[in-house]
Amino acid sequence: MVPSPPAANKLHVCLLAVLIIISLALMDAYLLEQNPGPRWIGVCVAVLAGDACFLIVLRYVAVWAGSEVQTARRGYAMVLWFFYTFILEIKVYFVYQNYKSQDLGVVAEVVETGVSRFALTLLLSLCMPTIFIMLAAIDHLDYLQPYRKREEIRSRLFWVVLDLLDVVDVQANLWELQREGLPTWVEGLTFFYCYILLLVLPCVSLSEISMQGVNIVPHKMMLYPVLSLATINVITILIRGGNLLIYGDIRVSGIMMGKNVMAIILKSCSLVQYRKQSTSAADPEDKVQKSSLGDPHISKAQSMVLPRVVIQDLTTLPEEEEEDGDA
């Protein structure tokens, strides 16, 4: 059993739990609003039962995550993020399906539904990055006393937050008002692709923080930039470009496309620079090893000469002693 967090971390744990509960409660409000009439009671019972089970698990996982806030470990924080995102995205999926099945025949209903959809996007874009930053808790790490080390990890987390907003923006295009609907298989593939990214990539970033000690090792924090470069910066450009060219979706975010282009350039340059530094750091080590070993022919010659000299000394000394005895 993990001990309870110190008094300094209790406020952090309570604030994190409150934000998680509020975000899930707002998603429950969306579900209840979309199911009026006789279905409201059944949906309410199912939602309350699920929230009760979630609160039981949250009570322990939040305490465990709070016990490691001031250390480099982020194992329970990864579990909490995975569990929270799993529950949140399931509720988002049902909300998205209800929006998809609604009949927008009246103009007033169209305006009201559009505002609620934008509010849903705003809710996700605020709660998910905030909870991730609180789980990372860079300001609570006691071993990061130098300002440079703290800012280096904070700059890496800034890219994670931008990637979260990018994925939420791609996912939000599915339920926000569009001129023409996308095919069903395209919508399902896009939603669950974003779902997997939201589950896995923040956990990868938290695991990189877990591997850091007093000295920050750069090669232990290169997994997330490589994965985000391939799965977010490249793929999301293709998704937005396909929606724009094939389906004529004019609501594609040009700002996020520009962000992805800049991220591809910067991350590619940083990866090339890191590879040059790693190879340049490996060359002096090879030279030192070669200089310490020396020429193999010389070493063999020395190994053959030295035993011969020793044998000559051992054999000549006794002969000199015998000649002196005869004289």
Automatic annotation (TrEMBL):
UniProt key word Transmembrane helix: yes
Alphabetized Pfam families for the sequence: CECR6_TMEM121 (PF14997)
Transmembrane segments: 12-32, 38-63, 75-96, 116-137, 190-209, 221-239
Tree of life domain: Eukaryota
Keywords per UniProt: Membrane, Transmembrane, Transmembrane helix
Family of this protein: Belongs to the TMEM121 family.
Descriptive protein name: Transmembrane protein 121 Protein hole
